[in-house]
């Protein structure tokens, strides 16, 4: 794979940024990768483990001269970071982000992008429940989707170059409109996370089941909820605060379905339950056929860095 950018700057050095660094290095996609994180502790860790060719003590220093700047901070922090780096962005450079919500990021970042600088929002649909600079690994994006959400009038060459970077990091790439992205993610990621958080919270409240029983017998289904519910609290707080409408819409639908199933259980409507579970099984089959998971019961755990 050949070099796509001479210099890439990663702002925020957590799971996604560190995985991007290792994936960029794996394929030789950039000449130099600079990095910045707000805390001294994260910058020190990054230097110790060789994350980034150069770790800088300010976001502006990291961004100076970069052809591509990637905002890898929580969604609620994107606007302030964009405002801070705006004066030093190189003409012709591209600014992108990896935020899990797109409409809010566009609204908070786009006004700070100076003329002559491209803005191409993006969202890699890949992650683990781990966070921080030591949680990343080069394979995170392999065969996962990355959605590009270009704003109107964006230079097609800037979009094509970013697409090439994500493909070089192992992703499949699609383009999507921002509101549609937020709705799709509310269905596939945001609402499921909220349900997992709730389920783990419920188990925590159930005093009739002891903590040790919950932990000991968790492989029966609860374990998968706990993995999701261990995700970073700041990131997920921001996701729900910024993708409010779509999440509430899908939660409303979810609640209706839940009530229907609750009634079926109470009235002994086995046919409804059986038909429902047959339909959901087909959706699972579709995900496996699309190569987004395997039938192996412990898929993901062996690969994800613990
Ligand atoms: P992470 O591992 O928690 O790292 C977050 C980074 O952002 C850290 O370097 C942190 O700095 C910095 N940061 C936190 N709050 C900040 C603030 N207020 N101002 C400036 N910097 C701040 O997060 P991540 O999982 O890589 O997520 C980064 C972005 O990717 C988020 O927007 C998230 O929505 C998106 N995303 C996440 C996943 C996932 O599964 N994790 C998947 C796809 C997209 P310090 O270390 O110095 O505190």
TrEMBL record:
Gene3D superfamilies, A to Z: 6-phosphogluconate dehydrogenase C-terminal like domain, NAD(P)-binding Rossmann-like Domain
Record-linked InterPro entries: 6-PGluconate_DH-like_C_sf, NAD(P)-bd_dom_sf, PDH_C, PDH_N, Preph/Arog_dehydrog, Prephen_DH
Keyword Oxidoreductase on entry: yes
Keyword Cell wall biogenesis/degradation tagged: no
UniProt KW keywords: Oxidoreductase
Annotated ranges, domain Prephenate/arogenate dehydrogenase: 6-295
Organism: Ruegeria sediminis
Pfam families registered for this protein in UniProt: PDH_C (PF20463), PDH_N (PF02153)
Lineage: Bacteria, Pseudomonadati, Pseudomonadota, Alphaproteobacteria, Rhodobacterales
PROSITE patterns assigned: PDH_ADH
Name of the protein described by the UniProt record: Prephenate/arogenate dehydrogenase family protein
